[in-house]
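Contributing new records

If you add data, match the layout below exactly. Sequence lines come first and carry their own label; structure lines follow with theirs. Keep one chain per record. Anything else will be rejected by the validation script.
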Amino acid sequence: MKTNQILPLFMIIFLFYQVSICSDIGKIWPSEKKTWVDPEFGYEITQWTNHSAESWHLYFNIESFIDKDHAVIFSKRNGDLNLFNLNLQSGEMIQMTNEKNMSTSVWHYPGLKTLWYINGNQIKALNTETYKVTNTITTDMKPGSMTVTCDGKWIVTAVDKTKPAEQGPQISKGPYAIYKISTETGEMIQISPDYGFVIGHLQANPVDPALVSYCWQHLYRPGSYPGTIGATPLRIWWINIDGTDGGPVGPQEFGIHRTHEFWFPDGSRIGYSARYIYGPNQGRQFMGSCAPDGSDNYMMELPVKFAHSQMFKDNRHWVVDIFDGMVLTLLTIDERKAVKIQPLFRHDSSWEGQSSHPHPHFSPDGKIIIFSTDKYGSANVFSVKIK
Protein backbone atom coordinates (compact mmCIF):
# COMPACT_ATOMS: atom_id res chain seq x y z
CA MET A 1 0.00 0.00 0.00
CA LYS A 2 1.36 3.42 -0.93
CA THR A 3 1.90 6.16 1.64
CA ASN A 4 -0.70 8.43 0.03
CA GLN A 5 -3.28 5.63 0.47
CA ILE A 6 -2.39 4.99 4.11
CA LEU A 7 -2.93 8.61 5.22
CA PRO A 8 -6.55 8.93 4.06
CA LEU A 9 -7.38 5.57 5.67
CA PHE A 10 -5.76 6.70 8.91
CA MET A 11 -7.72 9.97 8.80
CA ILE A 12 -11.00 8.13 8.24
CA ILE A 13 -10.36 5.87 11.24
CA PHE A 14 -9.32 8.88 13.34
CA LEU A 15 -12.43 10.87 12.43
CA PHE A 16 -14.71 7.90 13.14
CA TYR A 17 -13.04 7.51 16.53
CA GLN A 18 -13.47 11.21 17.29
CA VAL A 19 -17.19 11.13 16.42
CA SER A 20 -17.75 8.01 18.51
CA ILE A 21 -16.02 9.35 21.62
CA CYS A 22 -17.62 12.81 21.32
CA SER A 23 -21.19 11.46 21.23
CA ASP A 24 -22.95 11.19 24.56
CA ILE A 25 -25.56 8.75 23.23
CA GLY A 26 -25.64 5.81 25.62
CA LYS A 27 -23.99 7.78 28.42
CA ILE A 28 -25.31 6.75 31.84
CA TRP A 29 -26.06 9.63 34.19
CA PRO A 30 -26.12 8.69 37.90
CA SER A 31 -29.28 8.57 39.97
CA GLU A 32 -30.52 11.78 41.57
CA LYS A 33 -33.64 10.24 43.14
CA LYS A 34 -34.99 11.25 46.50
CA THR A 35 -38.11 9.73 48.10
CA TRP A 36 -40.27 10.95 50.97
CA VAL A 37 -43.82 10.75 52.27
CA ASP A 38 -45.72 13.98 51.68
CA PRO A 39 -46.97 15.26 55.06
CA GLU A 40 -50.01 17.03 53.60
CA PHE A 41 -51.73 14.16 51.76
CA GLY A 42 -49.69 11.12 52.88
CA TYR A 43 -48.54 9.79 49.48
CA GLU A 44 -45.02 8.65 48.63
CA ILE A 45 -43.29 11.19 46.40
CA THR A 46 -40.10 10.59 44.43
CA GLN A 47 -38.04 13.34 42.88
CA TRP A 48 -36.16 11.69 40.00
CA THR A 49 -34.06 14.57 38.70
CA ASN A 50 -32.27 17.20 40.71
CA HIS A 51 -30.01 18.97 38.23
CA SER A 52 -29.63 22.74 38.02
CA ALA A 53 -30.60 22.49 34.34
CA GLU A 54 -34.25 21.83 33.57
CA SER A 55 -35.59 18.28 33.20
CA TRP A 56 -39.16 17.30 32.42
CA HIS A 57 -41.14 14.43 30.91
CA LEU A 58 -43.17 14.47 27.69
CA TYR A 59 -46.29 16.55 27.15
CA PHE A 60 -49.42 15.21 28.85
CA ASN A 61 -51.04 13.92 25.62
CA ILE A 62 -47.88 12.11 24.43
CA GLU A 63 -46.91 8.77 25.98
CA SER A 64 -43.86 9.26 28.19
CA PHE A 65 -43.57 5.66 29.43
CA ILE A 66 -41.50 3.12 27.47
CA ASP A 67 -42.72 0.47 29.92
CA LYS A 68 -43.71 0.49 33.58
CA ASP A 69 -40.09 0.93 34.71
CA HIS A 70 -38.77 3.41 32.13
CA ALA A 71 -39.88 6.82 30.90
CA VAL A 72 -38.65 9.27 28.29
CA ILE A 73 -37.69 12.69 29.64
CA PHE A 74 -36.20 15.89 28.25
CA SER A 75 -33.18 17.41 29.95
CA LYS A 76 -30.70 20.20 29.31
CA ARG A 77 -28.09 18.67 31.61
CA ASN A 78 -25.48 18.36 28.87
CA GLY A 79 -26.01 21.95 27.72
CA ASP A 80 -28.43 21.19 24.90
CA LEU A 81 -31.98 19.89 24.95
CA ASN A 82 -31.90 16.10 24.57
CA LEU A 83 -33.89 12.97 25.33
CA PHE A 84 -33.07 10.56 28.15
CA ASN A 85 -34.33 7.15 29.29
CA LEU A 86 -35.15 7.43 33.00
CA ASN A 87 -35.01 4.16 34.97
CA LEU A 88 -37.88 4.36 37.46
CA GLN A 89 -36.25 1.80 39.74
CA SER A 90 -32.57 2.77 39.94
CA GLY A 91 -32.97 6.42 38.97
CA GLU A 92 -30.18 6.18 36.39
CA MET A 93 -30.64 8.05 33.11
CA ILE A 94 -29.33 6.94 29.72
CA GLN A 95 -28.85 9.68 27.13
CA MET A 96 -30.80 8.82 23.98
CA THR A 97 -29.90 11.70 21.64
CA ASN A 98 -27.06 14.12 21.07
CA GLU A 99 -28.70 17.01 19.22
CA LYS A 100 -28.03 20.74 19.12
CA ASN A 101 -31.37 22.14 17.93
CA MET A 102 -34.01 19.65 19.02
CA SER A 103 -37.64 20.72 19.18
CA THR A 104 -39.91 19.68 22.04
CA SER A 105 -42.39 18.45 19.41
CA VAL A 106 -42.11 14.66 19.62
CA TRP A 107 -44.36 11.60 19.37
CA HIS A 108 -43.86 8.21 21.02
CA TYR A 109 -45.43 4.78 20.50
CA PRO A 110 -44.01 2.20 22.96
CA GLY A 111 -45.53 -0.65 20.92
CA LEU A 112 -43.52 0.42 17.88
CA LYS A 113 -40.39 1.05 20.02
CA THR A 114 -40.07 4.34 18.18
CA LEU A 115 -39.96 7.99 19.16
CA TRP A 116 -40.16 10.66 16.45
CA TYR A 117 -38.64 14.09 17.04
CA ILE A 118 -38.01 17.29 15.08
CA ASN A 119 -34.67 18.96 14.53
CA GLY A 120 -34.98 21.96 12.21
CA ASN A 121 -36.46 20.73 8.92
CA GLN A 122 -35.78 17.10 9.77
CA ILE A 123 -38.03 14.53 11.44
CA LYS A 124 -36.09 11.63 12.92
CA ALA A 125 -37.29 8.20 14.08
CA LEU A 126 -35.40 6.97 17.14
CA ASN A 127 -35.39 3.32 18.27
CA THR A 128 -35.99 3.45 22.03
CA GLU A 129 -34.03 0.24 22.64
CA THR A 130 -30.90 0.85 20.57
CA TYR A 131 -30.97 4.70 20.54
CA LYS A 132 -30.26 4.52 16.82
CA VAL A 133 -31.95 6.88 14.36
CA THR A 134 -33.66 4.49 11.96
CA ASN A 135 -35.18 7.06 9.60
CA THR A 136 -34.63 10.75 8.80
CA ILE A 137 -37.09 12.73 6.71
CA THR A 138 -36.08 16.19 5.47
CA THR A 139 -38.95 18.53 4.61
CA ASP A 140 -39.14 21.68 2.49
CA MET A 141 -41.18 23.41 5.21
CA LYS A 142 -40.46 23.56 8.91
CA PRO A 143 -42.81 21.17 10.77
CA GLY A 144 -44.60 22.37 13.90
CA SER A 145 -46.94 20.38 16.14
CA MET A 146 -46.54 16.71 15.18
CA THR A 147 -48.22 13.36 15.70
CA VAL A 148 -47.89 9.88 14.16
CA THR A 149 -50.74 7.53 13.24
CA CYS A 150 -50.98 4.43 15.44
CA ASP A 151 -49.94 2.15 12.57
CA GLY A 152 -46.74 4.17 12.16
CA LYS A 153 -47.42 4.90 8.47
CA TRP A 154 -47.98 8.66 8.57
CA ILE A 155 -46.44 11.62 10.35
CA VAL A 156 -49.03 14.40 10.58
CA THR A 157 -47.76 17.91 11.19
CA ALA A 158 -48.91 21.52 11.24
CA VAL A 159 -47.07 23.96 9.00
CA ASP A 160 -46.89 27.75 8.99
CA LYS A 161 -46.84 28.53 5.24
CA THR A 162 -45.79 32.15 5.70
CA LYS A 163 -43.09 32.96 3.18
CA PRO A 164 -39.71 33.45 4.91
CA ALA A 165 -39.45 37.03 3.57
CA GLU A 166 -42.82 37.86 5.21
CA GLN A 167 -42.12 36.36 8.61
CA GLY A 168 -41.88 38.93 11.37
CA PRO A 169 -40.46 38.62 14.88
CA GLN A 170 -43.90 38.22 16.47
CA ILE A 171 -46.86 37.63 14.19
CA SER A 172 -46.79 35.40 11.12
CA LYS A 173 -49.29 35.96 8.33
CA GLY A 174 -49.99 32.33 7.54
CA PRO A 175 -51.79 30.55 6.05
CA TYR A 176 -51.53 27.46 8.24
CA ALA A 177 -52.19 23.89 7.10
CA ILE A 178 -51.90 20.21 8.05
CA TYR A 179 -49.71 17.83 6.08
CA LYS A 180 -49.19 14.09 6.23
CA ILE A 181 -45.75 12.63 5.53
CA SER A 182 -45.21 9.00 4.59
CA THR A 183 -42.78 7.34 7.00
CA GLU A 184 -41.86 4.97 4.17
CA THR A 185 -41.22 7.36 1.27
CA GLY A 186 -41.07 10.82 2.87
CA GLU A 187 -43.77 12.12 0.50
CA MET A 188 -45.48 15.21 1.97
CA ILE A 189 -49.19 15.79 1.18
CA GLN A 190 -51.40 18.64 2.37
CA ILE A 191 -54.63 17.25 3.87
CA SER A 192 -56.34 20.37 5.23
CA PRO A 193 -57.42 23.64 3.64
CA ASP A 194 -55.23 26.68 4.18
CA TYR A 195 -56.50 28.15 7.46
CA GLY A 196 -56.19 31.65 8.87
CA PHE A 197 -55.45 30.41 12.38
CA VAL A 198 -52.53 28.70 14.09
CA ILE A 199 -52.92 24.92 14.28
CA GLY A 200 -51.66 23.10 17.37
CA HIS A 201 -52.02 20.02 19.57
CA LEU A 202 -52.12 17.45 16.75
CA GLN A 203 -53.00 14.07 18.24
CA ALA A 204 -53.49 10.83 16.37
CA ASN A 205 -56.26 8.61 17.70
CA PRO A 206 -54.60 5.77 19.67
CA VAL A 207 -56.56 2.99 17.91
CA ASP A 208 -57.87 4.47 14.64
CA PRO A 209 -55.06 5.37 12.17
CA ALA A 210 -57.49 7.42 10.06
CA LEU A 211 -58.45 9.93 12.77
CA VAL A 212 -56.47 12.96 14.01
CA SER A 213 -57.57 15.74 16.34
CA TYR A 214 -56.07 19.23 16.48
CA CYS A 215 -56.85 22.63 17.89
CA TRP A 216 -57.34 26.22 16.87
CA GLN A 217 -54.47 27.48 19.01
CA HIS A 218 -55.34 30.14 21.57
CA LEU A 219 -52.77 32.70 22.70
CA TYR A 220 -52.38 34.97 25.67
CA ARG A 221 -49.30 37.15 25.14
CA PRO A 222 -48.23 39.05 22.01
CA GLY A 223 -45.03 37.54 20.73
CA SER A 224 -45.45 34.27 22.61
CA TYR A 225 -46.36 32.42 19.40
CA PRO A 226 -47.33 33.55 15.89
CA GLY A 227 -51.02 34.02 15.25
CA THR A 228 -54.21 35.43 16.74
CA ILE A 229 -54.07 36.64 20.34
CA GLY A 230 -56.93 35.61 22.64
CA ALA A 231 -59.38 32.78 23.18
CA THR A 232 -60.88 30.85 20.26
CA PRO A 233 -64.57 30.36 19.49
CA LEU A 234 -64.06 26.71 18.47
CA ARG A 235 -61.06 25.06 20.10
CA ILE A 236 -61.18 21.33 19.18
CA TRP A 237 -61.15 20.08 15.55
CA TRP A 238 -60.65 16.80 13.73
CA ILE A 239 -59.58 15.56 10.30
CA ASN A 240 -59.20 12.19 8.65
CA ILE A 241 -55.88 11.04 7.26
CA ASP A 242 -56.99 11.47 3.65
CA GLY A 243 -58.25 15.01 4.23
CA THR A 244 -61.68 14.12 2.86
CA ASP A 245 -63.62 14.90 6.04
CA GLY A 246 -63.24 16.84 9.28
CA GLY A 247 -64.27 20.01 11.06
CA PRO A 248 -64.92 21.43 14.50
CA VAL A 249 -65.75 19.20 17.46
CA GLY A 250 -68.68 21.22 18.69
CA PRO A 251 -70.78 22.90 19.63
CA GLN A 252 -68.80 25.13 21.98
CA GLU A 253 -71.00 27.13 24.32
CA PHE A 254 -70.93 30.92 24.33
CA GLY A 255 -68.26 32.32 26.64
CA ILE A 256 -66.52 29.01 27.32
CA HIS A 257 -62.86 28.32 26.64
CA ARG A 258 -61.91 24.68 26.15
CA THR A 259 -58.31 23.58 26.36
CA HIS A 260 -55.91 20.65 26.93
CA GLU A 261 -57.95 18.15 24.96
CA PHE A 262 -56.73 14.54 24.75
CA TRP A 263 -57.84 11.10 23.56
CA PHE A 264 -59.08 8.49 26.00
CA PRO A 265 -56.77 5.42 25.84
CA ASP A 266 -59.30 3.37 23.86
CA GLY A 267 -59.84 6.21 21.37
CA SER A 268 -63.54 6.36 22.13
CA ARG A 269 -63.75 9.88 23.54
CA ILE A 270 -62.00 13.24 23.84
CA GLY A 271 -61.39 14.70 27.29
CA TYR A 272 -60.77 18.40 27.95
CA SER A 273 -60.84 21.14 30.56
CA ALA A 274 -63.13 24.16 30.24
CA ARG A 275 -63.74 27.45 31.92
CA TYR A 276 -66.16 30.27 31.20
CA ILE A 277 -64.16 33.42 30.54
CA TYR A 278 -67.12 35.58 29.49
CA GLY A 279 -70.86 35.87 29.99
CA PRO A 280 -73.20 34.97 32.86
CA ASN A 281 -71.22 31.82 33.78
CA GLN A 282 -67.86 33.59 33.91
CA GLY A 283 -65.50 31.94 36.41
CA ARG A 284 -67.09 28.49 36.43
CA GLN A 285 -64.67 25.63 35.64
CA PHE A 286 -65.20 22.08 34.39
CA MET A 287 -63.69 18.82 33.23
CA GLY A 288 -65.49 17.54 30.14
CA SER A 289 -65.68 14.71 27.65
CA CYS A 290 -67.39 14.09 24.33
CA ALA A 291 -67.50 11.64 21.43
CA PRO A 292 -65.03 12.34 18.60
CA ASP A 293 -67.69 14.23 16.64
CA GLY A 294 -68.60 16.43 19.64
CA SER A 295 -71.81 14.61 20.51
CA ASP A 296 -72.60 12.94 23.85
CA ASN A 297 -70.90 15.77 25.72
CA TYR A 298 -70.85 16.03 29.50
CA MET A 299 -69.07 18.32 31.98
CA MET A 300 -68.23 18.00 35.70
CA GLU A 301 -67.87 21.24 37.64
CA LEU A 302 -64.47 21.29 39.36
CA PRO A 303 -61.95 24.06 40.20
CA VAL A 304 -59.53 22.98 37.48
CA LYS A 305 -58.11 26.24 36.08
CA PHE A 306 -55.60 25.11 33.35
CA ALA A 307 -56.12 21.40 34.07
CA HIS A 308 -53.64 19.12 32.40
CA SER A 309 -55.18 15.69 32.68
CA GLN A 310 -55.02 12.08 31.57
CA MET A 311 -57.44 9.16 31.76
CA PHE A 312 -56.19 5.73 32.84
CA LYS A 313 -56.91 2.80 30.53
CA ASP A 314 -59.86 1.72 32.71
CA ASN A 315 -61.70 4.91 31.56
CA ARG A 316 -62.56 5.45 35.21
CA HIS A 317 -59.58 7.09 36.89
CA TRP A 318 -58.75 10.59 35.76
CA VAL A 319 -55.71 12.52 37.02
CA VAL A 320 -55.91 16.29 36.85
CA ASP A 321 -54.66 19.52 38.45
CA ILE A 322 -57.45 21.03 40.52
CA PHE A 323 -57.83 23.51 43.37
CA ASP A 324 -56.76 26.37 41.09
CA GLY A 325 -54.42 24.10 39.19
CA MET A 326 -52.00 23.65 42.08
CA VAL A 327 -52.87 20.20 43.44
CA LEU A 328 -52.39 16.97 41.53
CA THR A 329 -55.63 15.07 42.10
CA LEU A 330 -57.03 11.64 41.25
CA LEU A 331 -60.71 11.51 40.26
CA THR A 332 -62.79 8.34 40.25
CA ILE A 333 -65.57 8.66 37.67
CA ASP A 334 -68.87 6.77 37.84
CA GLU A 335 -71.90 7.60 35.74
CA ARG A 336 -70.20 10.78 34.52
CA LYS A 337 -69.67 12.11 38.03
CA ALA A 338 -66.56 12.44 40.16
CA VAL A 339 -67.59 10.11 42.97
CA LYS A 340 -64.17 10.27 44.64
CA ILE A 341 -61.66 13.13 44.75
CA GLN A 342 -58.18 12.28 46.07
CA PRO A 343 -55.64 15.12 46.38
CA LEU A 344 -52.19 13.60 45.79
CA PHE A 345 -49.57 16.36 45.92
CA ARG A 346 -49.44 20.16 46.02
CA HIS A 347 -47.08 20.76 43.10
CA ASP A 348 -47.28 24.59 43.26
CA SER A 349 -45.91 25.03 39.74
CA SER A 350 -44.96 28.54 38.72
CA TRP A 351 -46.49 27.79 35.29
CA GLU A 352 -43.59 29.69 33.73
CA GLY A 353 -42.75 27.68 30.62
CA GLN A 354 -43.88 24.21 29.54
CA SER A 355 -41.09 22.48 31.49
CA SER A 356 -42.70 23.56 34.77
CA HIS A 357 -46.19 22.33 33.88
CA PRO A 358 -47.21 19.11 35.70
CA HIS A 359 -48.54 17.19 32.64
CA PRO A 360 -49.42 14.08 34.68
CA HIS A 361 -49.02 10.58 33.20
CA PHE A 362 -50.22 7.22 34.55
CA SER A 363 -47.66 4.41 34.42
CA PRO A 364 -48.87 1.42 32.34
CA ASP A 365 -49.70 -0.55 35.51
CA GLY A 366 -51.35 2.45 37.17
CA LYS A 367 -49.08 2.31 40.22
CA ILE A 368 -47.50 5.73 39.87
CA ILE A 369 -48.22 9.06 38.22
CA ILE A 370 -45.25 10.94 36.81
CA PHE A 371 -45.31 14.74 36.69
CA SER A 372 -43.04 17.79 36.51
CA THR A 373 -42.82 20.96 38.56
CA ASP A 374 -40.40 23.76 39.45
CA LYS A 375 -41.68 23.89 43.03
CA TYR A 376 -38.16 23.51 44.42
CA GLY A 377 -36.33 25.70 41.91
CA SER A 378 -35.57 24.36 38.42
CA ALA A 379 -38.14 22.19 36.64
CA ASN A 380 -37.62 18.52 37.52
CA VAL A 381 -39.35 15.14 37.18
CA PHE A 382 -41.35 13.62 40.06
CA SER A 383 -43.78 10.77 40.68
CA VAL A 384 -46.47 9.97 43.22
CA LYS A 385 -47.18 6.37 44.24
CA ILE A 386 -50.91 5.67 44.16
CA LYS A 387 -50.93 1.85 44.61
